[in-house]
Structures are given as structure tokens and as C-alpha cells.
Amino acid sequence: MSKKLSKITFSLDNAPSIRSFASIVGEKEGEGPLAAYFDMTTKDDYFGQDTWEKAESEFLNTAVNTALSKAELAQKDIDMIFAGDLLNQCISSTYGLRDFDIAVVGIFGACSTFAQGLMLSSLFVDNELADNVIAATSSHFSTAERQFRFPLSYGGQRTPTSQWTVTGSGAVVVSKSSEPPFVRGVTIGTIVDLGVNDANNMGAAMAPAAARTIKQYLDDTSTNPNDYDYIITGDLGEVGSELLIELLNREGIDISSVHRDCGKMIFDSDKQDTHAGGSGCGCCASVMCGYFLPKIKSGEIKNVLLAATGALMSTTASQQGESIPSISHLVHISNERGNER
Q1: Does the residue 149 lie in any domain?
Q2: Which domain holds residue 95?
Q3: CB atoms < 10 A from the CB of 15, how many?
Q4: Angle between helices 52-71 and 141-148 (to 10 degrees)
């Protein structure tokens, strides 16, 4: 059963297992530094569909089915799915999963949605409320640009602090199992808003939320950055990553040697012209499922914290001059099931 360490931090004593994981990405992501690690790369960002939105749903559908296949489970074996995305009413998840005869809980944490889904799935399994749960999310460069910024045909200039929304999806199956990776603890994020209102500088908006959540988990578990191989953020990019390190340094916490950011890893910003790096729900999901989780499973990596971040913005609020509230949910993932760190 889960043990409450603070109002928002829980240790998971049964240590649910991430039984399988799958990552599907688009062409640009497949040309980046992590190309060899994804389960599938498509050369067609329409993914055989006639709209980008339908393509994103197909990405998520494919990732879920791939994770099921790798877990050697059928749909009837799954208790529920936690899924969400960036689009209005989470339509990528809704349409991507509508043919599944499985209970679905739609969730939204912007780019933190993968960590949010993994956290909720793990809590359900740890407390014996479910045996097998799927967490999945997706994003698509073209759908996100159309919704949050400008249609691609507009041809607007991208600012140096802007990030490139990842076209991709990631899905995991969380189960009772003796095989790693194991989920050892979670911290539920708190909304942080320091007044940033530039939709092209989400790293600056999200970094304070990541700093707060990481500090919370370290304090609640009496651990320090050196207890972990990596402290991973979802998509702060280059600007947000620098701010995160600076903010935690002010608190006497130095994560500079162990920090990795999925948004910085998935693209070569110089060669691929992605400016400050990657973003989107599919960024953290595909990098975790493609790169980090296999290495944790094999034992090459022993212990990580994933603190995915989300900018809880909308076009309506932005047009009304609102700032960008942000959140970060944290999941502790380990190769070891016991209490040793």
C-alpha cells in the first residue's frame, strides 16, 4: 500500500512494475540523436490519415497497442487507461481510444501528462485497485501549432526561446510484477505561476514548478541529488533547464551533474533548427519509453526521478493577457524494488 510522506508525496511500498513501454515518433524525431531508441518512426506525419489531428490519434492508438503486445496482454486484461494530450477536449486520446473496450480516464497536465498518468496508474496498482493499467499520451507539431500559435501556412518567425512540439506518443503498462522498472514514489504537482506570459518561452514558465516539485520530493524522502543516476525533466528545453538549475542552486540543491531534459535530448537543436529544444506531451513520453525505461529495465541505469512539466495555458487565456500557470508531477523509477537507494 502507498505510504503518505507528506500531503502530496507518497512512497509506493508494493513498487508497481512498468511491465512494458512503447514509443512512436515522427520523421524529424527519427532524425535526431535518439533515433535508434524508438519502437517505430514514421516518415509520414499524417500517419496514413487525412488530417494531423487524426494522425495524432493514430500515433496514440499504435503506441497503446504496441505496449499491449510487448506486455503479452489483451485488451480484456487491462482495468483502465489514463490518457491525455494537448488538444481541446483531449480529442487525440478520445478518438485514439474510442474503439478500445476499456475504461478510460481522461487527464490533462499539458506536457506533464505522461508523468501524471504514470503516477495515477502506479497509485491504483500499488493500492490494489487495479491489476493492469495503461498510461498514454501524444502530441503532434502541426496540431499544436494550429491550436496554440499560428497555422503552418502563416510562415511566422520562431523566437530563440521557442520549442518544437514533438510528433510522437508513448504508452506504458503498469502491473503487479517482479520485473523492473519499478515505481517507488510520487509527488503530486502544485500550480506555480510567476507571471511569465510569453507562449514562446514555456521553459521559463515551467522551470519554477519543476524546482518546487523536485525539492519537495527530496525533502520528503530525505534524499539528495547524488542518490539518483538522473533527475529528468520532461521538456524544459535549454532555457528552462538553465533556470531550473539556477533556482535549485538558490535552495542549496545542485542537480547540474545529474540533470537531463527530454526536450534537449530528442533533437539536435543546431542541426535540426529546433531552437530551445523539444516540447509536447509526446516529448517526455517517447524519450522515457524509448531511451530511459529500457536502460532502467536492464540495470544500466538504477535510479531516476522524472519531473515532467506542463504549461497550463490556453489560447483564450493568452489572448486575454493571462500569464502561464505551470505544474510538475514527479515519479521515482528504479531498477530495485526494495528501500535501498
Answers
A1: yes
A2: 17-175
A3: 24
A4: 140
